[in-house]
Specification:
By secondary structure, this protein is an alpha+beta fold. It has two domains: about 120 residues, Alpha-Beta Plaits, CATH 3.30.70; about 240 residues, no CATH class. Helices cover about 25% and strands about 25% of the residues. The strands form three sheets. Strands 5, 6, 7, 8, 9, 10, 13, 14, 15 and 16 form a ten-stranded mixed sheet that branches. Strands 2-3-1-4 form a four-stranded antiparallel sheet, with helices on one face. A hairpin with a 5-residue loop joins strand 11 and strand 12. The mean pLDDT is about 90.
């Protein structure tokens, strides 16, 4: 059976600042999807990561389907109405366009979709991050799909050994989608050369070279490219299929033990370690640290199993302790040096106006 997995996520309001959406807001979105999605969706799951609402759905309509995207957009609008009535902070802040234009790409919400013929057993992972940018997934995807130090299947499995194709987008180019396709392992160094720049080059998708099947889809939305100013971090989502032709679930998760440094934190202007958190976790420390959660599902005939929270395990408590220490250490450095993002990322914030005013006061000293 050919099905589509769609995940659409946005910040439409939060309690006490950028912490978590209210229960009433979440329930409003759930009720709207359940009621209005009848006959369109096969199944759905709604949850939150930090202050973002995520809508996962299964259907037979293919990617970028107008009706599916409109349903999710309208559900987020209904949630925004509740957020405004409750006086929640940032009500509707990720909904950057007033009128729906066919699909939500370029309208603010993060979106990732996979269309495929179901295997006999179809396990997949739903990742949702908060207080960071799409490039946060670059390193984990590189390590899971191209590095045998993390994915032993690249050595042990004849199918996986054939490698994967990466489609990488230049998100700094705003006139159209500018992408390149590179294959591992032959072009491994070229892939690394691009993915080191999380702010500009982002993995959009990965395909198995053995079967041609798509393994992963990640959102590429940069909110400042849409709004022309800082309106919040991009809070990316990702869908990854696991097992058989693809890395095992544990191999896909293994890179998240690093707590690698990504863009994020308060005002999206600092570098911080990506912390793997349990489902429906809130945000606290300096509007951070940048977080990611991951739910595992199986799907059969478009029907989802209950989810398994893969980061809800004693081992990940140990990882979170280590990431907390990394977060504290870099935040002690405040605004200085590598602790804050480069000007290419800060040019959408108020610091640009400050620099313009200070520039007028510089003088050229005579010899």
């Amino acid at each position: 059976m050919k099905i589509t997995l769609s995940i659409i996520k946005a910040d439409i309001g939060s309690i006490g600042g950028h912490i978590k959406p209210s229960e009433k807001l979440i329930q409003t979105v759930k009720d709207y999807i359940k009621t209005k999605g009848k006959g369109l969706l096969i199944d759905s799951y709604i949850g939150h990561t930090g202050d973002d609402i995520a809508i996962l759905s299964t259907h037979k309509k293919g990617v970028l389907n107008k009706k599916v995207h409109k349903l999710c957009w309208d559900a987020l609008l209904e949630g925004t109405k509740v957020a405004k009535k409750q006086g929640l902070y940032g009500a509707g802040q990720d909904l950057l366009k007033e009128s729906f234009s066919g699909n939500v790409k370029g309208m603010g919400p993060a979106v990732a979709e996979l269309e495929f013929e179901e295997r006999a057993a179809e396990p997949f992972l739903m990742f949702a991050a908060d207080k960071t940018e799409p490039g946060a997934y670059n390193l984990p995807l590189y390590l899971a799909f191209a590095d045998p130090m993390y994915t032993a299947g690249l050595i042990l499995s004849p199918k996986i050994k054939k490698g994967f194709k990466f489609r990488i987008m230049d998100v700094a180019y705003t006139k159209a989608d500018k992408v390149i396709e590179l294959v591992a392992p032959e072009e491994l160094y070229d892939i690394a050369a691009l993915l080191r720049d999380n702010g500009r080059f982002v993995v959009e998708g990965i395909w198995s070279r053995a079967s041609g099947e798509r393994a992963a889809a990640a959102s590429t939305t940069r909110l400042h490219n849409i709004a022309g100013k800082y309106v919040g971090k991009d809070d990316p989502v990702m869908l990854v299929r696991a097992q058989h032709d693809f890395p095992a679930t544990g191999e896909i998760l293994s890179p998240y033990t690093i707590g690698h440094y990504v863009a994020g934190f308060m005002r999206g202007s600092h570098a911080g370690p990506l912390m793997p958190v349990k489902r429906n976790s809130s945000i606290s420390f300096f509007d951070g640290p940048p977080v990611v959660n991951c739910l595992a599902f199986c799907v059969k005939d478009g029907k989802l199993t209950e989810s398994a929270d893969v980061f809800d395990h004693p081992y990940w408590d140990y990882v979170r302790q280590n990431v907390s220490r990394k977060a504290e250490e870099i935040r002690k450095q405040g605004f200085s040096g590598a602790a804050m993002l480069p000007m290419s990322e800060l040019e959408y914030t108020g610091v640009v106006e400050t620099l313009k005013e200070l520039e007028k006061r510089f003088v050229i000293r005579k010899k």
